[in-house]
Amino acid sequence: xxxxxxxxxxxxxxxxxxxxxxxxxxxxxxxxxxxxxxxxxxxxxxxxxxxxxxxxxxxxxxxxxxxxxxxxxxxxxxxxxxxxxxxxxxxxxxxxxxxxxxxxxxxxxxxxxxxxxxxxxxxxxxxxxxxxxxx
Length: 135
Known about the structure:
alpha+beta, YjgF/YER057c/UK114, CATH 3.30.1330.40, 2-iminobutanoate/2-iminopropanoate deaminase, RutC-like_sf
């Protein structure tokens, strides 16, 4: 659950609808109306792995976790300012574009896709975002 904060404090965002952090970090932090979502690998909310699944399955899971964290923070796809995606293999870029467009709908935040040689636990995709919350 999110802890309340005054506008000058940082709050930590947590939801059971996304995997618990495996290290010393929060799923997201917020300061005033800005939300910074930590990199989300394609782990399921219960912590089980999808690294043995096809790229599309992993991309959907990573984005679903990101969107669940944003929802907990009082935000959503239309309020995302910037996304950074790390993908293993340039050949996965078209699949990422397709899944990303399906899951974000009309939202078109600024975005960077960074091809990388590998990710932790053998995952093929990781996404992070900066968004605005509130109405």
